[in-house]
TrEMBL record:
Pfam families: Ank_2 (PF12796). ANK repeats lie at residues 72-104. It comes from the Bacteria. This is Ankyrin repeat domain-containing protein. Residues 1-21 form the signal peptide. PROSITE patterns: ANK_REP_REGION, ANK_REPEAT. It comes from Arenibacter aquaticus. Keywords: ANK repeat, Signal. InterPro entries: Ankyrin_rpt, Ankyrin_rpt-contain_sf.
Amino acid sequence: MRKTILTTVMAFSLCVSAVWAKSSVTFNSVNEAVLMVKADDISSFCKAIMQGDIETVKRLIELGEDVNKKSMGKTPAIFAARYNKTEILKLLIANGADLKIKCDKGFNAKKHAELSNAKEALEIINLSLKS
């Protein structure tokens, strides 16, 4: 009986450690747990936004990329706001990005800009929401 219990506990421990090896948890500025995921899980469009690659973003929009399609629960505008990519944010807005769409956690682009201290992106968002 002891051997069975010990074997079960060891198998469970290995499974849990394998899951933790594939991801990591950190805490953001508001002490929320943030699961760090592999970059492979983010769409190519949002990767280009995060990297500030405006030429690729323009090309993808020209090819019909949806400027409001979520990746990892966030819209492209949220990624641009969060990483303070102002030129890309302006481009997304000009191509119909809806700044009021909320991420899966309930925050819109404005809130992500505030949480990230992305002041320039926040100014662009505020101006866009006023008009």
